[in-house]
Specification:
transmembrane; transmembrane helix; 14 strands; 6-stranded antiparallel beta sheet; alpha+beta; 8-stranded mixed beta sheet; membrane
Length: about 425
């Protein structure tokens, strides 16, 4: 506690004894600087060592306050002595008894010599106090240094000097007194060092992590330039099953066809694509049973279901198309499958020319996409009826809620129907007729 008391006593000597607020601010500033210095010491001090130093500091402060209260601490500045001195008699010369103090005499040489002496003495005393404060000098040696300086009495030399403290305030001067060479290690410098260390450790970890991933993945295998490309897998197509006819007494002729990968028969003279998986607006359905479109990445499709209010959907065949089909033999082609959620075991489709409806074609889809086709001779005379021709598609049993998915509908024109063709005219919607195949 001796070193703290000596430094604080000289530092408090220049403050008025009747101004405890100024002393309290000075003590608080000094204690804050002391705490910062203790925490920034390298190697770091333990908490017990820091608490012990702060306890010595507080004891020194209490001792100084007791001395000030008992009148044992005298002011240090000559100005304070001049305020209490009697006024000089008339005609008195500086330096005479009862006159102005000799220290106020305008004599440059003694003043400069005194300043230099104080600075040299201050540096020696500062070194002694710093070494004692940090345990670098034995207390007995510190007491000898104190005795050389005049038993630690307060005086002008104990006051704060701008030349020594750098003119930055009492707290900074106290930090410089107690810090010595450690004062250069400010908290910002320590934080910068810690940050740089963390950055280096992070980079080392990243390098280790990337190298471990490379080792796990192994060296990349380079393609052999002499290797031949793999041949595509051949797709085996089963032969088409023969067409089977069945008559159902529902007011119209129905023909059951087997699914084939591609329609067999004569090469078409032309093709009319009604739906290719992109434009679902060609379908007409009831609001209670709408056609749902699903646009996939390769090719979209529509889902056609049946309900009690609607048996299916219709596709429009425009005027330019059906005028071209009059008197022609056509092939109706539908690419469909059973819906994944509620698949229909069968569906039927036909062509309506005006008021004339062709035979119903029955297909039995499964979970895979299949092509269903059948031929029909379009009558040369369309007659009265709707403005457009229609292609009707009805899945399953009406009202059972099953559905099929359709991703392609087209009409292939095979050629003119011969006049001597024995095929009977197609059936009207009102009654049955013979099979036109």
């Amino acid at each position: 506690m001796t070193q703290f008391y000596a430094v604080l006593r000289r530092s408090m000597a220049h403050l008025p004894a009747d101004d405890p607020a100024s002393r309290a601010r000075a003590f608080a500033s000094a204690r804050e600087a002391m705490v910062r210095l203790l925490w920034s010491y390298d190697p770091p001090l333990t908490r017990d060592e820091i608490d012990a130093r702060l306890g010595d500091f507080d004891s020194a402060v209490d001792r100084i306050e007791i001395e000030i209260a008992s009148g044992g601490l005298e002011p240090a500045f000559a100005e304070q002595e001049a305020e209490t001195a009697a006024p000089a008699p008339a005609g008195a010369r500086p330096g005479d008894d009862g006159g102005l103090p000799a220290a106020w005499h305008d004599d440059p040489a003694p003043f400069e010599a005194g300043t230099a002496w104080r600075a040299d003495e201050g540096r020696d005393r500062f070194a002694t106090e710093t070494e004692v404060a940090w345990g670098r000098m034995e207390p007995e040696e510190a007491d000898d240094e104190e005795e050389k300086d005049g038993d630690g009495e307060a005086g002008p030399r104990g006051a704060a000097h701008p030349e020594r403290d750098g003119g930055v305030g009492w707290g900074s001067g106290f930090l410089a007194r107690f810090g010595g060479d450690v004062a250069a290690r400010s908290p910002s410098t320590l934080l910068a060092g810690v940050g740089a260390t963390l950055v280096i450790l992070g980079l080392v970890w990243c390098v280790w992590f990337v190298s471990s991933l490379i080792e796990q993945a192994g060296a990349p295998q380079l393609a052999d330039p002499n290797a031949l490309p793999a041949l595509p897998e051949e797709k085996v197509v089963a032969p088409a099953k023969p067409t089977v006819q069945e008559l159902v007494d529902d007011g119209a002729t129905q023909v059951s066809v087997a699914a084939v990968d591609a329609p067999a028969g004569d090469a078409p003279e032309g093709t009319i694509v009604l739906f290719d998986g992109r434009d679902p607006t060609v379908f007409q359905s009831a609001p209670a049973n709408p056609v749902r479109f699903d646009g996939g990445p390769d090719q979209g499709f529509v889902r056609i279901s049946t309900s009690t209010s609607s048996t299916g959907t219709r596709l429009n065949v425009g005027r330019g198309a059906f005028e071209r089909l009059a008197g022609q033999t056509i092939r109706l082609i539908v690419v469909a499958r059973g819906s994944p959620d509620r698949p229909s075991g069968s569906f039927r489709f036909t062509y309506q020319n005006g008021r004339t409806v062709g035979p119903w074609i029955i297909g039995r889809p499964d979970a895979e996409w299949q092509t269903f086709s059948a031929t029909w001779a379009v009558p040369p005379d369309r007659g009265a009826g709707p403005e457009n021709d229609l292609l009707l598609i009805e899945p399953g049993v009406p009202g059972d809620g099953t559905a099929i998915d359709v991703r392609g509908v087209r009409i292939e024109i095979i050629g003119k129907t011969p006049e001597d063709d024995p095929v009977s005219p197609p059936a009207e919607t009102s009654g049955p007729t013979e099979t036109p195949l």
